[in-house]
Amino acid sequence: MTQPLPFIVVEDRQNKTLALCRASAARARENLLVLAGTEAGADYERLCRSYVHLSSNTPAFEKICFRRYFLLAAHLEARPECREFVLLDSDVLLFHGLGAHVRRLVGEADFSGSFIEPIDGWDPCQISPHVSYWSAAGLAGFVAFVLDTYTSHAGRATLREIAARFAARGERGGVSDMTLLYLWAHASGNARPINRVFGGRVIDHNISSAHNLRANEFRLLGGAKHLAYRDGQPCLTTQAGESVQALALHFQGRAKLAMGQALRGGTRRVALLTYGLQFARRAKNRAFGMGLLARRVPAAHRLGDLPGSK
Question: Beta 84-88 vs 233-237: how paired, if at all?
Fold first, then answer.
């Protein structure tokens, strides 16, 4: 008999978001394990020594994001019987049937993560692990890839090139663990998305966006995907009017404030809360873009004062 997939959250803080994630897992009857350790071992320390910061987030935040893979690797090394698992962020709500859905979806892959197909020619080169399937071999391969990328000249050059694209567009983000996941998944043949509609079911990429795998894939209500609950299970509506059962909902950023309402089935309140939060997010993104522009203009003037090349 096939054993149920274990679900793992790597989180060293006890907060309301994690409590809601736990509650949803219990309701969905999925086995959830929380790894709360912070000592990630010698390989992680090696990464920290080689790390080059190329993100609009803080270095501490990005290093914590990378740390979870090394903590997971240590966990699996001590438990050789665990050959596969699903990694979750704590801002995800789980619903009944998620584990079986993931197992059917991924097939023989060593990894499957969540992303949005390029929109208007812009590809941020990111795969999100907020709901991601891993084999033990896949995790070991990714950890080795991260170390090789940050300790090699060619690897760092690739990351700097990606960061430069964000800067040129005035976009928040840059290089993160999601960038490394994108590069490794494509190099290793593990780039099939976990958030594609499959058998009338789907895993949410970001509740605050109409995009999922495809641009404008689902209808919105307020500031979130339009939710409707049937027999306790959330459903999304495609732009063509088709109903798709959501097996996981991702409350990224300030949308975490709506997690409790979503777990209780409060669809209208989720819509209103996320709608109000959109304005703060847009203002933050505008301020970031204007700050980049302000820094580029003086640099351009300085270059203009230099003598021309011979």
Answer: unpaired
Question: Is the CB of residue 22 less than 8 Å from the CB of residue 7?
Answer: no
Q: Are 167 and 292 in contact (CB under 8 A)?
A: yes
pTM tops 0.85? yes
φ/ψ bin of 216: left (φ > 0), alpha (ψ from -120 to 50), beta (otherwise): left
- Quick check: helix, strand or coil at residue 101? helix
* Percent helix / strand / coil, the chain, rounded to 5: 45, 20, 35
C-alpha 273/C-alpha 98 separation (Å) is: 26
Strands 84-88 and 7-10: parallel
Kindly report, residue by residue over 161-188, the tens digit of the pLDDT: 999 999 999 999 999 999 999 999 999 9
Phi, psi of 130 (to 5 degrees): -60, -30
Q: Is the dihedral of CA 255, 142, 111, 165 positive or negative?
A: positive
Query: CA–CA distance from 118 to each of 127, 141, 211 (Å)?
Result: 12, 26, 11
Which two tokens mark 186? 């494509």
DSSP letters spanning 133-178: EEEHHHHHHHHHHHHHHHHSHHHHHHHHHHHHHHHHHT-S-BS-HH
In this predicted structure, the answer to whether residue 227 has a pLDDT above a threshold of 90 is yes
Q: What is the DSSP letter of 55?
A: B
Cβ atoms of 21 and 92 within 8 Å: the answer is yes
- Cα distance between residue 192 and residue 109, in whole Å: 8
pLDDT band at 290 (very low <50, low <70, confident <90, very high): low
| The pLDDT of residue 302 is above 90 | no
Q: How far is CA 124 from the centre of its chain?
A: 12
Per-residue tokens: 240: 């063509």
Of 65, 60, 75, 83, give the one whose Cα is nearest residue 11.
65
Average pLDDT along the chain: 90
